[in-house]
Amino acid sequence: MGRAALTLRPAAASAIRRHGREAYPHECCGALIGRDGLVTMALALPNTTDEGPRRRFLVSPNDYRAAERHAAGMGARLLGFYHSHPDAPARPSPYDLEHAWPAFSYLIIGVPGGDPGQMTSWRLRDDRSAFDEEQLVEADPDDEVLV
């Protein structure tokens, strides 16, 4: 069912919170870049949805490819994506389920009233029937693994 946990480097967690605050009241989105379940960078991407960014997000194919190239250039991998839920819980919506791919982590940050709050991470089941929550860890800035 995939790895047991997703770990965020402090700079990546801060970048996601900042992006959620700046995009509010719209959804923000971006790529999670790193290796072996450790997110070393959160790369902000444009929300290209035609349905209105207040309640939807879409990463274009070109932005997806650019995120993969960016990760490869860092000697890393595209581990998944993040997006915000303005004034809604950090839980996947039916829309999120319809548009997700197996093998990626999907981090969601709730942004109630413009203030970034709870972050959760999810993995799509191989049969695409549902998400399973994965453990989300914010690494200690003093952790040797991050050096």
Give the topology, please:
Layout (H helix, E strand, L loop, with lengths): L4 E4 L1 H14 L5 E7 L2 E8 L15 H13 L3 E10 L7 H6 L5 E7 L7 E6 L6 E8 L9
Parallel strand pairs: 1-3, 1-7, 4-5
Antiparallel strand pairs: 2-3, 2-4, 5-6, 6-7
Fraction of residues in β-strands: 25-35%
Q: Per the principal axes of the C-alpha atoms, what is the gross shape?
A: globular
Helicity range of the residues?
10-25%
Question: What string gives the helices and strands in order?
Answer: EHEEHEHEEE
User: What is the level-2 CATH architecture name?
Assistant: 3-Layer(aba) Sandwich
Describe this structure in words.
This protein is an alpha/beta fold. The chain has one domain: 3-Layer(aba) Sandwich (Cytidine Deaminase, domain 2), CATH 3.40.140.10. It contains 3 helices and 7 strands. The chain has helices spanning 10-23, 61-73, 94-99, and strands at residues 5-8, 29-35, 38-45, 77-86, 105-111, 119-124, 131-138. A hairpin with a 7-residue loop joins β5 (105-111) and β6. The mean pLDDT is 90.
How would you describe this structure in keywords?
147 residues, 34% strand, alpha/beta, 7-stranded mixed beta barrel, globular, Cytidine Deaminase, domain 2, 22% helix
Give a quick rundown of the structure.
This protein has 147 residues and is α/β, with parallel strands linked by helices. The protein has helices at 10-23, 61-73, 94-99, and strands spanning 5-8, 29-35, 38-45, 77-86, 105-111, 119-124, 131-138. The protein is globular, with a radius of gyration of 14 Å.
